[in-house]
Each structure stands twice: as structure tokens, then as C-alpha cells.
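Table S5 (text form). Sequence records supplied for joint modeling of the two-component complex.
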Amino acid sequence: MSEIVRNSRIIYAAVPTGFPEPGIHLTYNDSLTIDLENVPLNGGLLIKTVALSIDPYMRTIMLGADIDGEKYLLDQPILGYGIGIVLRSEISDIRPGQYVHVDALGNSAVIPLARVTLTRQPEHAEYSVASVSAGVRVMKRSTSLPWSVYVGAAGMAGQTAFYGWREHAPAKKGSTLYVSTGAGAVGSMVIQLAKRDGMRVIASAGTQEKIDFLKEIGADVAFNYKETSVRELLAKQGPVDIYWDNVGGDTLDAALENMSVGGAIIICGYSTNAGSAPASSLMKMVYKDVHMVGFGFNTLEHKYLDEFYATIPPKLESGELKFREEVFRSLDKVPEALLRVLTGKNRGKAVVVLSDG
Amino acid sequence: MSEIVRNSRIIYAAVPTGFPEPGIHLTYNDSLTIDLENVPLNGGLLIKTVALSIDPYMRTIMLGADIDGEKYLLDQPILGYGIGIVLRSEISDIRPGQYVHVDALGNSAVIPLARVTLTRQPEHAEYSVASVSAGVRVMKRSTSLPWSVYVGAAGMAGQTAFYGWREHAPAKKGSTLYVSTGAGAVGSMVIQLAKRDGMRVIASAGTQEKIDFLKEIGADVAFNYKETSVRELLAKQGPVDIYWDNVGGDTLDAALENMSVGGAIIICGYSTNAGSAPASSLMKMVYKDVHMVGFGFNTLEHKYLDEFYATIPPKLESGELKFREEVFRSLDKVPEALLRVLTGKNRGKAVVVLSDG
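The corresponding C-alpha cell record, covering 714 residues in total, follows.
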């Protein structure tokens, strides 16, 4: 018996020098099939992809950066964070029909719900077989939110904001936060967490629509960095007690020049420039006793994951916390979705949804 | 009655673009006199300079950097850290004949021994009148070390190393420290503190003589950064658990690329490049959960000053802690001494001594 179906994939076709172009660096390939009944699982899972998260770090990996040893292989599918439904399982704790969140980065610290490590998964493909060393988590959906949200505001992006804020932000009522890329999936969650802590929030973005969203979620000062000098605005509206840095480079320098004594800078990843823009004002850290911390959400998951799922999805469902998403409805949209994210054109967390689960 | 004497000074004559050249950007001027009996003190002190510390930050100020608002005024004497003997006093706690350490940076947090704030002092002059807002500390010399050491290994440089190490270094036995400018006044103290904590130490410097000194004070791996790639050496000898960064720029990038997960980077100031060399690898902080902290020694003085004076000078006197100094014996040597420091030619902590006290 066999059930042979198409298994479309997004292929890493060429190394980009700038932005990855759809059809050139990332291509859609529907030439392969998969035998759902007989494909060997080697002790793992067969997963049907439900939703895939589209994130800036994917370009960083395409450019060859070493992120915990993670690489995309040329002519092979790219990898990412996503949610899928289990079709077959050779893992005792996981049953067909369950939904799983899969961590492409292969960090076994991220699997508190199902203590299993699988291969780097899920591929950006309709179906994938997970075998060794990635993190798989059986999802218990406690809200009516669609799965897309569970790879966005209730997924890696929201978790990054929540974990980083809980662990690293010395939030004080009345003190000032500045967030660059404030309308992004991480930035917008950070802003709302800061407002809940009574902070004054300065936030920047690159379009009027995003500025409007910044105001809607409570930013006290929202500005367009393409029209207003970050340096001049912070000199006027600062000093900055906490800077959540999503871009680096000259924006980081501008913040460093306007930090308060003892201020904190938090970096969870850079949105558009692959982190290559240099910063020249680190000496300001000495004059102002500033500290700067980088973190990956996965190393904090063991501390905050349960708290996150218990508190954040219900607030997203009730509207107490706001989020925006830009949902694409077929796998072939992955390259376009990523390019929109990297060029700042996306109107919310980019997610590619293959089925409503 | 009056006692009129020469009061030579070092003048900030022009803003340098690169290194400050003796006779051009810093000039020696012996045209003024001072009336030691009658010069008005305005509630302050008349101090005869004993020893002046020559430090890299002085160039940073000359280049116009804003360090807590500190500036040198053109055609006026430069300022610095130093020790002087009190000739006259209008401050009740301070008597003629006492030796005082004076903090040019005007931070009132640094005066635990005499609760007095005076003006930015001492000038690089034979005599100076201190009036409001700098830190003055009456010195109790408990060792036979000359005063020069109390502006070096037992002064601001040693204190910077000690305070920063105590406050910010997550030292663990067997873990690895990398120190750039390891043979400098700060770096060499950091190395010895790390060895006392059982760490493995990698250190770099720019001459064979300095490499020899690094080995003498216990560095496990000592290398010449002009001959050996920092990046390649750290890739082989790392990963680095703590990087004490004295230079920034590409060396910082090389360290960032070779940090261990959860590593720490400590910045107390940059030795030769005024902190302007850009760093491009801050994203590594995210992948490796690295934190970076800048600090000025003056904000930590209240916590560690007493401990410092109780423990460090006796160990310097006994030879348990080693130090090197390059002593100049007249005020007109200040410009040359500073240039030697900035070009890495000094063979120890640069100090200008005007009298043996």
C-alpha cells in the first residue's frame, strides 16, 4: 500500500550577495513526490506542514553566517520554524493527529513538552520527515487563535520579546525605552510589555502605516526613521534607559550617544542588515556604564516557556495584546514573503500557511 | 609677604587630527608665575604637583569626545589624574603637608576619604589651585612605594582593573580570559587578577619585550598581534569566556567570533584608537548569548576603594603583583610621554614625576 503525493519544496538555489531574489536564490520546486505510507522515519516523525514562520535570520543563514552551526545546503530545501500535523510517528510520546512546533535550529533546549530530538526541521516543504536533533514540541492550543499566530506573536517572535524582556530588561515605571523596528513582530510585543510595566516608549518604523500601528499599541513617541534623524530625536526625547536594538549600525550608535547612565541595550537579532553594519560608538558604554546583552530565545525557553503560553496567547485572543500578521496561503510565496520582510514591506508578522490545521 | 615662583604648564594648543604632536598640539609653557602666599583659594587648596598620570583617554578628550562633559580648553593647561602636596588649604579636613590624589574628571563619587569637591584638577602644571567639583582624596601611604605607583598600578589604572574585575568578571577556575593590550597598566593587572582566580590567560601586545612581560606575569598564551592573526589564534586557543577589550575594532570582532556561549566582554576604555574603530560582529552576541559591559572606574570606587588600598599596594610592594612604569622626570616630558603611550612605545605605565614627595 502506498500513498504517493506531490511534495513541493523551497530550494536554496544560490547564495545571495544582497537580498535573496525569488526565482534566483530561492526557488519553488514541485518535481518531487513522497510516499506517505512507506517513507522511512528512522525513529522520527512524518509531518505535514501547517504554517511556516518567515524571519530575517533566514537571510543571515543564506549569507553564510554561522548560527550555532546552522547552514542551508545548496539545492536542498531551506529550514525554518513551523507547525505541522503528525501523520506518522515512531516516537512513543507523539501520536498521529497531534500538532507539533518544530525548531529548525536544532537546539535540544527547546523541547520541554516532548523530550525528543529530531533532525533540523521542518523543511520548507509540504511534508517532511524529522529524524534527529531538532526540537519538537507537541502543541496544546488553548485559544481559538489560528496556527499562524502560534508561529508569530504566540511563537518564536513573541517568545523572543517575552523572554528577553523578562530576563534582561531593567524596566522601571516612568523610565524610557527606545525600540527600533518597533512595528515588527518582536518590536511590537516589546513595546506592549514595556507599556504594561509603565515605561515611556519611543519607537521607530519606516512607513506611516507602521507609525499608526506604533501609536495604536501605545508608543508615546513614534517616528519615521526615514524622515527624522534618530540621533536628533533621541537627543531631544532621551536619554534612553533601555534600547531594544533590532537594527545595529548607525542607529545603535545614535542610541549609544543618548543612553542614560547605567542604561541597557538588548539585542535579539537584526532585522534587515544581517548584522553587518558597524557600530563605532562603543566607547560610550564606558562613559555611561552601559551594558549590552545579546541572547537567543532558545536558551531562555526552559525558564519562560510555560509562563509564556499561560499568559500571552489568551491576551492575544482577547485583544489586550495586539499583533499584526501578513499571511500567505501557498508554499510558493515563501521567497516573496521573505523579501518583503527584509525590505520592510511586510505589514505584520509574515507567515506562510499551507492548511488551517 | 609673597613667594613668587615659576608655574610651568602643559598647554592644549591645537586640536589634533591624529596623534597629538609635542610642540604642536601640546606645548610646554614656562612664562607664568604664581604667588604661593597670596593666590586666592576661594575655599579650596593650593597644590604642588608631585606625580601626574599619563593616560590614553587624554587624547580622546583632545579629540573632542564628551566624557561626562569633560573638556580641555584651548590655550589652557590640560587636566589629569595626579598626586600633589597641599601647600595651603581653606578646607577644614585637609592640612598643608598632606598628600592628595586628585581626580580630574570631576566626579564627586570618588572622594571617600575627604568629602570635598573641587574644580577640575590638577592642571598639568607645577602648581594648581583646586576650587570646586573635582574629587580630592587625602592619601595615606602605607607602603614604601613611590608616589608614581599611586597614580599607576596603585592608582587609576590598577583601580580600573581591580574594580572592573571584581564587579563584572564571571571568573571561573580553568575558564579562559583574553586581554588585548595585556602589557598595559590595566591589562597587566587584569591578567594577574585572573591568574589568582585560576583562569587560563591569553594576552596580546605589540613588542617582544611586552610579550616577555606577559609571560613573566603568568599569561599562558602570549602573542604579538602584529605578527599573529588575533582571529586565527583565538580560533585555535579559544573559545574565550571573558574578553577584556582594550582596543575595540577588528580585535573586538575577532573576539566576538570566538566567544564561548554565555561569554562576557568588559570594556574600560580603549588604549590607542579613541574608540572609533567600528565593530561589525555584534550579532555574534545573539548567537552566543554574550554580554558586554562598559564601565568607568569612578562609579565603582565607592564599592571597592577601601578593599583596593588594603590589598593591592602591599602586594605590589612585596612583588606578589608585578608592574612596570616608565617615569619621566620633568613636566615638559608630558607631550612625549603621551605620544609614547598612544603609539604603544611606552615600556610601562607612563608617569611624570615632578618631585619625590
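Note: Residues 301-318 of chain B form the longest helix (18 residues).
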